[in-house]
Each structure stands twice: as C-alpha cells, then as structure tokens.
Amino acid sequence: MREGIIVKGIGGFYSVKTADGVYECRARGRLRRESVVPMVGDRVHISLENGKGSIEAIGERTSMLIRPPVANIDQLVVVAACSAPAPNPALIDHFLIMGEIIGVQTVLCLNKTDLDGDTGSEIRQIYEQAGYRVLCTSAVCGAGIDELRALLKDRVTAFAGNSGVGKSSILNVVDLDFVLKTGEVSEKIKRGRHTTRMVELLALGCGGYVLDTPGFSSFELPDIKAEELELYFREFSPYLGKCRFRGCAHVGEPDCAVLAAVQAGEISQQRYDSYKALYYDLKKAKEW
Questions:
Q1: Per CATH, the architecture of 65-218 is what?
Q2: CA distances in angstroms from 277 to 178, 240, 262, listed in the order given
Q3: How far apart are CA 115 and CA 209, in angstroms?
Q4: Tens digit of each residue's pLDDT (9 = 90 or more) over 189-237
Q5: What is the model's pLDDT at position 1?
Q6: Of 122, 125, 120, nearest to 137 (Cα)?
Q7: Which pLDDT belongs to residue 144?
Q8: Residues spanned by CATH 3.40.50.300 within the chain?
C-alpha cells in the first residue's frame, strides 16, 4: 500500500503522485458504490497490481471546492490585474469571500503593476485596510515574484481570478519548469480568453503545489444565506453586535455600526457597496 496525492483526474482515471513515482489509478468499486468521488488534492492510499493502481482509501479533507473540484488546499491566491483587463472589485470580493467560507489563508495578488502602478496602489490600500495581505507582481519585470514564491513554498495553493489577469504568466515565472499556456487579452472586449481547461496540481521546485483554476464562470460560491454574508467581510467583525437592532442587515437601518464605520472611513465604501450588492443578490436567490 502506498500513500500519495491526486494531482490530476480525467474520465475516472487519477494520477497519484507518491514518493516513488506517479501512478494512474481508478477508484475501487467500493468507493463508487458509497458515492465517494476522488478529487484532485485528495490524500489517498493506493494498491498496485500488474502495474495498475487502485485507490483504496481517501483521507479526511481539510477543505473542499465543488467547482472546480479540488480538496485540501492551504491557501487561495486571488489574482487581479492593474490593467488589461481593468480590476473588477466585485469579482475580487467574490473570490475573497470564497476563501473566508472554506477557511483557508487568502491573499490578493495585484499583477501587471508595470502597466498601471497608480491603480494597484489604490486597490492595495482598500484591501489592506480590509485585513488582507496584498502582493504586487509583474511577470514582465519580475517585481514581487520572490515574495510570491516564498508564500507558495510547501503549501497547496489555488490560484483564482478572471481570464487575462496573468495567473499562468506569473506561475511560469515563479517556476521556470512550468510551461503553462497563456492567453492574450482581446482588444475588442478587454477580457482574457480562457486558457486553463483541466484541473491539475503542479509541483513546485521549491516545495508545495499550485492549482491553476479555470476562469470565473467555473468558480462558484457555496450556498450561503444573505444573513450570513456579514461574517465573510472580515473588516465588519469589530462592529457586529453593536448595531441598534438585533439582526441588522447593514443595508440602511438606523444606528448601524457598520454603516457608521463606512461613513468614518474605517470601512471602504467600495467594499461596503460590494457587500450590499451581494446581499441583495442572495436575498433574491432565496425568494426564487
């Protein structure tokens, strides 16, 4: 029996990396009957017979995403571009909320700082105020790459962000053994073309793994209630329970401590607007 980690899965076949090599495996029928579906990132026990591998058992998962299907990530790096495409704060917040929900360390990486440093500074200030670590990188000039590489060392990290922000480009610079396909941003629509199709863990030379996830359309929030949303905006935490009304939704009620913090500049207006928009979206979803 060997221990390993699933680094790739396609069509019911799983590539499992062990101490002595990578083996193609299938899940035992018992697991399929129990509706246990292996995921990329799973720690597994495998057996070998005539060169063919079978997944016998799957270890307990510490974290899990449904789409893309991946387990046991330690941290989430949310990548946004300073320009081409322009940063989308609502999209950034969507990814950051995902990190809060699954309970992993979450970092914002502002890429393409060589194109627009002023925009990067503004975004950095907003998210550092919210309590996030922010890295500024450029795959072109190499800025911030050493800091990013140190962050990834010995961890299992998922990269998330809309197409065209340069996720694959910076990973190619982080580890020169990677030859990930990169996509150009369409001049007509100012969006990137999807270049990452398959979910796969990539081993880093410095230790650890990275997961280059597909674009935004395949990265979905779990089903949460509108009333729970306040818990996933970390800068709201000092003000929760201090509003005039119990169960305050922070969307216009009188004597709201969160709104007062926004008006005092202690919470970013941009982040607050993002909260309200998502709150109403969740309310509408519940009604449907």
A1: 3-Layer(aba) Sandwich (3.40)
A2: 38, 19, 15
A3: 29
A4: 344 444 445 788 999 998 999 986 655 444 566 678 999 999 999 999 9
A5: 85
A6: 120
A7: 93
A8: 65-218
Q: Give DSSP secondary structure letters for 39-102.
A: -BT-EEEEEEETTEEEEEEEPPPS-EETTTTEE---EEEEEEESSSSPP-HHHHHHHHHHHHHH
CB contact set of 194 (below 8 Å; sequence gap of 6+): 163, 183, 214, 215
What's the whole-model pTM score?
0.86
Asked whether the beta carbons of 172 and 210 are under 8 A apart, the reply is no
* Fold (CATH) for 226-287: Ribonucleotide Reductase Protein R1; domain 1 (1.10.40)
pLDDT at site 287: 58
> Where exactly does CATH 1.10.40.50 map onto the chain?
226-287
Predicted local distance difference test score (pLDDT) of residue 115: 80
Residue 262's identity, in one-letter code, is V
Cα four-point dihedral sign 82, 167, 221, 75: negative
Half-sphere exposure of 109 (CA within 13 A, CB side): 34
Residues of the chain with pLDDT under 70: 116-117, 180-197, 212-222, 286-288
Side chain identity at residue 250, one-letter code: H
**Cα 277 to Cα 260: distance, rounded to the nearest angstrom:** 18
Task: Give the CATH class of 2-60.
Answer: mainly beta
What's the token pair of residue 152?
Answer: 């990834």
**What is the distance between the alpha carbons of residues 47 and 26, in angstroms, rounded to a whole number?**
10
β-pairing, 133-136 with 201-203? unpaired
DSSP-derived 3-state class of residue 107: strand
